[in-house]
Write a structure and sequence with these properties.
434 Repressor (Amino-terminal Domain); 17 helices; mainly alpha; 4 domains; 354 residues
Length: 354
Amino acid sequence: MATKQQPISPEFWVHPGETIAEMLEDRGMTQKELAQRTGFSEKHISTVLSGKKSISAILAIRLEYAFDVPASFFNNLQANYDVEVAQWNETHTIKAEEIAIAKEITNSVETLLNVTLDHGNHYQNSVPLLRKYLGISDLTMIQKLNFGNYRGQFAGNTSFNMMYVWQYLCEKETEGQTTVPFNKEKLKESLPAIKQVMFEDFSTHFLRIQEILNTCGVLFTVKPHMRQAPIKGLTVKTKKNQMLIALTIYGKYVDIFWFTLFHEIAHLLNDDYLKKQDDAELVQKAEEEANLFAANQLIDPTLYQAFIEKGDFSEKALVAFAAEAHVLLTIVIGRLNHDNQSWNNRIELRQKYL
């Protein structure tokens, strides 16, 4: 379970003034004498000792003269006390709006980061860690920070709080994957190598794809499917001006993953990340072009059309066509299902990632 050190309760706070009072007692020194040694008024010294004032930087320096104790000791006492007070205030002044957002996004953050948060007290306890994980001091600011360059890409039930979580955590995870500038031509040249990965051990697919994309200047990650987040994938230019492809495994189906991968690659090759995402018609056109690109990259359209016209969907014919098209059998099955072809549905041949 991910934990955050709980703020110290006020009854256990030790104001630096208490420590100074103990030092006076140990040395047999009065407040008046300390005032004279430091050049501060007795009233000021009294308010510090009573916890009503903080130790200023100049007072810390003069306390060093008076006690022969480094000024940093007093500065640290004050800093630690201030942090205790701030942490207490941060966890005890959480707005209802933040709690509502925490309730919406906590489960997804747990899944994406593989952590467990404390949901007690109606999600109030998870707010401080969510702030830390998401790089924000107030969850209600997510709407203002929301990157917004995907707003036109997804269905109406998309949560922009969830979208921020998705993109922010994907960017954080992929930081440092590569420093290579994005190279569109190299990405085009790498398409056959990327497709060839599908014939390798399934457990290596994601890492192998990442390795190839990184050489093209593209960051890559695969995350579990999130409710109200991108249905299948996201392609964006990060705040550090790097290209990022982040995918889910919708239903864990192998064919959907590979189609989505080439769909998102198409968005990079077509410069869709540079286009306005609030133009519905433009977005729709970009999506259709990416769909066509992905379908044709996986299965040659001429071969596919000839296969459909033959009308032989026996397992033997399916296996032979997959070999001819140089693609996994499960991708042929997925394509036929998607196209609603009238055939003997062999869903048992459709593979999933574990």
